Every structure is written in structure tokens, then in C-alpha cells.
Amino acid sequence: MIETEGFKDVLLRFSSLPTDIGVGIRKAINQSVLMVQADAKRSIERPSGGRVYKRGKSTKGRGKRARIGARTEIHIASKPGDAPNKDNGDLIKYLKVSKVKGNTRKGYSAYVKSLAPYSMDLEYGTNRMAARPFLRPALAKNAPKIEKLIFNAVRSQL
């Protein structure tokens, strides 16, 4: 049998936690997902030089002699491993956060996700394209701040 000194005191403290401790934790988690979302957006808006693509229709000619029509657009792709460069703004527009769900007994959860259909390909890459992650780095960058927010929310209620 293993005995831990002070364990009964810890259990007693947890059983006497205020019932509204969840309010502080929920606020901390809500603030956390907004921080991750904001960082992901900033990383997409910050350009990273990579390959230049021309898209659109040419009006006349073929090959090297083609004249570029008015609808041609230029996009600069990000470097592999960097966050994707902003193109038409959909990736940023479709970055959504959830409300916090859960309670102190079952735990809490919230998420930041992109509803853009190509976001998984950018985040993890494909067999034809290297990954351009934007969510995982945003979470990793904010992890210490998130831990501190949650820790402080719990500590303020003890």
C-alpha cells in the first residue's frame, strides 16, 4: 500500500472548492481560444515569400506569347512549413471558435477550427504539397499563456 503525505488535505481542499470555480475556468478557456484564433489569423496575414503563381485566363496566344487578360491574378504561395499566405481571405474568414462546454467534474473543452474545405490540406500537407500549418503553431505559441490563465483562474478561487 502506498501512502502519500498530505493527500487527505488535497482531497479536502478539492471537495470544498467553490461551486462557481467553473465560471473563472470558462472565462480563461474562452480567452484562450480567442488568443489562438487571433494568432492563426496573424500568421496567415503575415506574408512569407515562396513560389509565384499566375491564375486566370489569357485573352490571346498560346505559351510564351500569351497576353494576360484582365482577370489574371497573382498569388505568392508561402514557403513549406510556414503558415499559408492570405489569398482570397476565406481561410481567415472561416476560422471559428466554439463556446466552452463541460463542467468541473467531466472537464472542459473548446476549439478553434477552420471551416474552409482545404484547411486540412494546408495544416498537414498532401502527397503533392508540403504542410503550411497555421493552427498547431498558434496553439503551441499560446500554450504557456493558456496554462497560466487556467492556473490563475483556479488559484483565484482557492
Q: Any chance you could write out the topology, listing elements then pairs?
A:
Blueprint (H helix, E strand, L loop, with lengths): L6 H9 L5 H25 L6 E4 L2 E3 L6 E2 L4 E4 L13 H4 L1 E3 L3 E3 L3 E3 L2 E3 L4 H6 L10 H21 L3
Antiparallel strand pairs: 1-4, 2-3, 5-8, 6-7
Helix pairs in contact: 2-5
Could you characterize the architecture of this molecule?
The protein is an alpha+beta fold. It has a domain at 19-48 and 81-155. Helix content is 41%, strand content 16%. It is built from five helices and eight strands. A two-stranded antiparallel sheet has the order 1-4. It has a two-stranded antiparallel sheet with strand order 2-3. A hairpin with a 6-residue loop joins strand 2 (58-60) and strand 3. The protein starts with 6 loop residues before the first helix and ends with a helix. The model has no long low-confidence stretch (mean pLDDT 82).
Concise overview:
By secondary structure, this protein is α+β, with helices and mostly antiparallel strands. The protein has helices spanning 7-15, 21-45, 90-93, 119-124, 135-155; strands at residues 52-55, 58-60, 67-68, 73-76, 95-97, 101-103, 107-109, 112-114. The two termini are 30 Å apart.
